[in-house]
Write a structure and sequence with these properties.
Layout: H1 5-8, H2 17-31, H3 40-56, H4 59-75, E1 78-81, E2 85-88, H5 98-106, H6 113-119, H7 123-126, E3 137-138, E4 142-145, H8 150-155, E5 157-168, E6 175-186, E7 195-198, E8 208-209, E9 213-216
Parallel strand pairs: 3-8, 4-9
Antiparallel strand pairs: 1-2, 5-6, 7-9
Helix pairs in contact: 2-3, 3-5
């Protein structure tokens, strides 16, 4: 069956674009070489995650992969042409630069600024320099679950939830992970799976607009 890109990212086959982005963000940070010095397995995993995201984030590649698997994606599949008869699609070849996938994904938000400055001073411009400030994109929502007792749902209550998110540093270019307490008012009689939205409580970055934080009960 070949490589299962969905499994690599911890996803099901019906994953949405938001799911794909959220899981690549999570696992690329977890397995990044800067956090796993001299760990060959983490480096291999980081590379595999980059290839998986490169395929699943592209609609055409994803469509071919979903229908024909890794073999069809990389070897090509028949393509009907009215004039020339039957032709074949060009096989996909991953460019092999996992760091480029990582940089392109985070845009101007570089969670490993010091690391990249050490290995290549020019990279700092692509993470928050003039090029990175020209356009902003909104991050997908971050979903979290809050577990309540039946009594709390029946009578209502106020719950506190600690969340971790990336917050911009004073230099305006780099960010760091900080905790924040959200006060959640649970209304009397709310049903299970009710969702509360906290606007702009997602990760911050010089080139990103924070997404919503979605709390489901």
């Amino acid at each position: 069956m070949g490589v299962d890109y969905y499994e690599l990212l911890g996803l099901r086959r019906n994953a949405t674009d938001g799911d794909i982005k959220k899981n690549y963000r999570k696992w690329s940070l977890f397995y990044h070489p800067d956090k796993n010095n001299d760990d060959l397995q983490a480096e291999v995993k980081f590379f595999q995650l980059a290839e998986a995201y490169d395929v699943l984030s592209d609609k055409k590649r994803k469509a071919v992969y979903d229908q024909f698997g890794e073999e069809g994606l990389k070897c090509g599949v028949p393509l009907k042409c009215e004039e020339d008869g039957e032709a074949w699609t060009k096989g996909y070849v991953f460019h092999g630069d996992a760091q480029k996938v990582f940089r392109d994904f985070f845009g101007g938000d570089n969670p490993f600024q010091d690391y990249f400055d050490r290995i290549d001073g020019d990279l700092s411009m692509s993470f928050g320099g003039l090029e990175g400030r020209s356009r902003k994109k909104k991050d997908p929502p971050i979903e979290r679950n809050l577990f309540l007792t039946l009594e709390e749902l029946y009578h209502g209550c106020i719950k506190k939830m600690r969340i971790s998110r990336r917050v911009m540093n004073e230099d305006g270019h780099t960010s760091s992970v900080r905790d924040k307490i959200l006060n959640i008012t649970v209304r009397k009689g709310w049903l299970p799976n009710t969702t509360i939205t906290f606007p702009n409580e997602g990760d911050q970055g010089p080139n990103t607009i924070p997404g919503e934080s979605l709390e489901s009960f």
